[in-house]
Amino acid sequence: MPLYKTITVDESTNVLIWKIEESYEILCEGIELTQHCQERVDNMKSDMHRRGFMSVRHLLAVFGYSDHDLYYDEFGKPHLNDGKQISISHSFDFAGIIISDKLVGIDIEKQREKINRIAHKFVNPGEKDYLKSQNLDEVRALTVIWGAKESLYKLYATAGLSFEQHIYISSFTLDYPFVFGAINYKNEISHYDLVYLEFEGFTCVYATPGH
To answer: Are 128 and 165 in contact (CB under 8 A)?
Structure first.
């Protein structure tokens, strides 16, 4: 079982990351899907998406949950039947989940040069300024910002939220894995703590409410 990383964030918050090495058929062993999820996975054209989907079910099982304990609301945000908060991500060879008593978000991204081409869609002027002034490795830094905003977007789960206009990521260095974020939406401001980790050319960011 390729459980790749286990992170205890605090007494009620845990992160699990799975490295997807098995075939889809092997990942199906011992996992019972709801009819809805079986239809979803049957309609996926990508083998990697199918394997990512099933890997998440194995991560749920580590926590003692099955697919029957998971449901999605009208925004596509996942929930657990027992009221615990959950966020899910998978990208290429990795899948991850975070489970907590409080609102959480997680995102895994492959570090790729093409992020430079789409940076204007999610980076605001303040973030552009500190990226230039600190002379950071652009692909790595942009992937942290994208992952941070994606994890906050999942946590907030509100229609109309814009990565560029409503989500702000503090300046950071690539020497320390801690970042601060804020969401300013409809005259409400909320603050968040974010942690990122890098492994095998991927970046994982997870978000929790700020203290």
So the answer is: no
Going by C-alpha positions, the residue among 141, 151, 142 that lies closest to residue 96 is 151
- The token duo for 77 is 């945000």
- Write out the residue range of the structural domain in which residue 186 sits: 108-209
Query: Are residues 153 and 125 part of one domain?
Result: yes
d(CA 134, CA 161): 28
Cβ-contact 71, 81 below 8 angstroms: yes
Q: Which residues contact 11 (CB under 8 A, 6 or more apart)?
A: none
Report the alpha-carbon distance of residue 20 to residue 3 in Å, rounded. Answer: 9
Q: Which of 102, 134, 153 is at the close of a domain?
A: 102
Q: Is residue 157 within 8 Å of 75, Cβ to Cβ?
A: yes
Query: Per-residue pLDDT tens for 21-67?
Result: 999 999 999 999 999 899 999 999 999 999 999 999 999 999 999 99
The H or E element spanning position 90 is strand 85-91
Q: What is the dihedral of CA 138, 201, 110, 140, to 10 degrees?
A: -20
Taking the whole predicted model, whether its pTM rises above 0.85 is answered as yes
- Tell me the three state secondary structure of residue 28: helix
Orientation angle between helical segments 47-62 and 35-42, nearest 10 degrees: 150
Which tokens go with 177?
């894995």
Other C-beta atoms within 10 Å of 203: how many?
A: 24
How far is Cα 105 from Cα 189, in angstroms, rounded to an integer? 17
Collapsed DSSP state (helix, strand, coil) of residue 128: helix
